[in-house]
Amino acid sequence: MDHETRTTETAGVDVYADAPRIVDEMCWVAAQCADRRLGVTLGRAFLLRKTALIDRIALFETATYAPDVAARAVRAAEESALALVEYDAEHRGLSRRALELVTGADCRTYVREQYGEWSRAQRS
Q: Burial code of 99-116, b = ≥16 C-beta within 10 A, e = fewer?
């Protein structure tokens, strides 16, 4: 992985500094899924937290393993990030073009920005 790719891959990860431990967040996501009633959507906060969790797992995998080993986690993070971008485009009027959200890495950076905003709002 070259320097530019590594820089893009880790851009904005400091927003996760105060996030719950990965295992705790996995338990929260699982509990939300288990507790939801059939036909009830969980909403944006759930989608954001789940997507941030998947992004954090991919960051860990990328830092720990060879690129070919981490590729599956990175792909999952990119797919989940794209789902959040599409949700925001549909429900919040997000313009992917205006934000230049083109690649999976762009979408993951967007997730980190949104998680940072959400996290700050939770503390205030």
A: bebeebbbbbbbbbebbe
What burial class does residue 28 get, using C-beta atoms within 10 Å of its C-beta: 0-12 exposed, 13-18 middle, 19+ buried?
middle
Kindly report, residue by residue over 45-98, the tens digit of the pLDDT. 999 999 999 999 999 999 999 999 999 999 999 999 999 999 999 999 888 776
In the chain, domain spans: 44-124
> How many Å apart are CA 32 and CA 61, to the nearest integer?
25
pLDDT at residue 6, as a whole number: 43
